[in-house]
Amino acid sequence: MAHIEGTHAVNRIFYLAVPQEALLDVALPLADSAQTMHGWNRIIIEKPFGFTSLYSKRVTQSLLSRFEEKQIYRIDHLLGKDLIENLTVLRFSNLVFEPLWSRTYIRSVQVIFSEETAAEIQGRYFGNYGIIRDIVHSHILQTIALFAMEPPVSLDGEDIRDEKVKVLRSIRKVDFEDVVLGQLKDTSGKVDRYTKSMTPTYFAAAMYIDNARWDGVPFLIKTGIGLMKNRAEIRIQFHHVPGNIYRERIGHDTDLDTNELVLRDQPEEAILLKVNNKVPGLGLQLDASELNLLRYGLWRYNVEVPDSYEHLLLDVLDGDNHLFMRSDELAAAWNVLAPVIHEIDQNRVAPELYEAGDKGPINAYYLAAKHGVRWDDDW
User: Fold this and answer.
1) In this structure, are residues 120 and 225 in contact, taking their beta carbons and an 8 Å threshold?
2) Which CATH superfamily includes the segment(s) 77-306+327-370?
3) Helix axes 82-92, 141-148, angle to 10 degrees
4) What's the confidence (pLDDT) of residue 249?
5) Is residue 3 flagged as an active site residue?
6) Over the Cα atoms of the chain, what is R_g?
7) pTM for this predicted structure
8) Max alpha carbon distance in the chain (Å)?
9) 297-348, pLDDT tens digit by residue?
């Protein structure tokens, strides 16, 4: 490399797809002996980002002793989906949505990510980390932060990350009574032989953000593997219309008169707006209709959607870091989940077993009802 590069300014990216146990053994020698002296150097680190809060803090301190913060890119491929980018575009570039984005109009928010396949648990990787460290710590909490943040000063990555970390620091300590753990059975009805006896493969929880915009709004999250189908969506449910004069025309289910905005990546990409509409014909009965805001757009542009890794790696090349966790974001996310993980480990909490291809633990439905929310059952 020295012979080819000569004295020219060159840039280097180090992609560390290595286990957490080997991270520092690889990263620190690279920092000492493999960085170019002329040009920029960037290091990409794969999730999950640590085992515990303390372990993660020590790793961060070691990395920052050799690299600058702007060089570190903690990558989560799930954040490279168009769903995530559309989340902020839809909100901040459309007057029709931005004024509604608060406790005044929004009753609840659901963040759902499920995978039909369970192949990922067939190795040491998932057995060591579980669903909380693998999916909730980065993907779910980053989605909530992007959803709930205040408008950033600009689209600069640091401005966006400043707002995300404020949201993460405002998340209330999660009550363990508001947590549901699940574990996938194998075909014999026993705990899957590839997982550790207490490793959750399913997690649901109710979270609250204690700030002026979101006070009292439940954020219900649900994620798991080996479930009925692949699903990734954000579901925003608005308050009922006060004094709705059409209430008796909608039927007995009062939730039918609730407007919803659904941002979906799987099973098929869509932005759905659920509105109440008159049923055609004689009489005056109302029904809920879904407007797909992406249907026309997909036909119009006819472009190939890049893989999420393509998206994020291009961001690294461009130096765009808004979809990558900064060190203070990482610490704030651990502060949210560390008490939950400690409770699970300390008390050896047994997850509720569920069948492959099912909807997951039944207790998740009791959890939603407790907070006045109903999970959407369109699995």
Assistant:
1) yes
2) Dihydrodipicolinate Reductase; domain 2 (3.30.360.10)
3) 20
4) 67
5) no
6) 22
7) 0.90
8) 82
9) 555 666 777 889 999 999 999 999 999 999 999 999 999 999 999 999 888 8
Q: How far is CA 112 from CA 34, 220, 252, in A?
A: 41, 8, 27
Domain ranges of the chain: 2-75, 77-306+327-370
Which of 184-188, 237-241, 274-278 is predicted most confidently? 237-241
Whether the CB-CB separation of 56 and 26 falls below 8 Å is answered with no
Burial class of residue 46 (count of CB atoms within 10 Å of its CB; 0-12, 13-18, 19+): middle
E strand residue ranges, 116-230: 179-184, 202-207, 219-225
Of 139, 240, 252, 322, the active-site residue reads: 139
Q: Is 109:237 a contact under the CB 8 Å cutoff?
A: yes
Q: Residue 152: which residues within 8 A CB-CB, separation 6 or more?
A: 159, 160, 162, 163
Residue 105: C-alpha distances to residues 240, 350, 362 (Å): 9, 38, 29
Quick one: tokens of 276?
A: 């109440």
Segment 110-130, tens digit of pLDDT: 999 998 876 555 454 556 678
Other beta carbons within 10 angstroms of residue 285's beta carbon come to 13
Q: Which two tokens stand for residue 207?
A: 């979270």
CATH of domain 2-75: 3.40.50.720
Are the C-beta atoms of 111 and 219 separated by less than 8 Å?
A: yes
Site of tokens 């029904």: 287
Q: What is the pLDDT of residues 210-254, one digit of tens each?
A: 999 999 999 999 999 989 888 899 999 998 887 776 666 666 555
User: H or E segment at 262?
Assistant: strand 260-266
Backbone angles phi, psi at 287, to 5 degrees: -140, 160
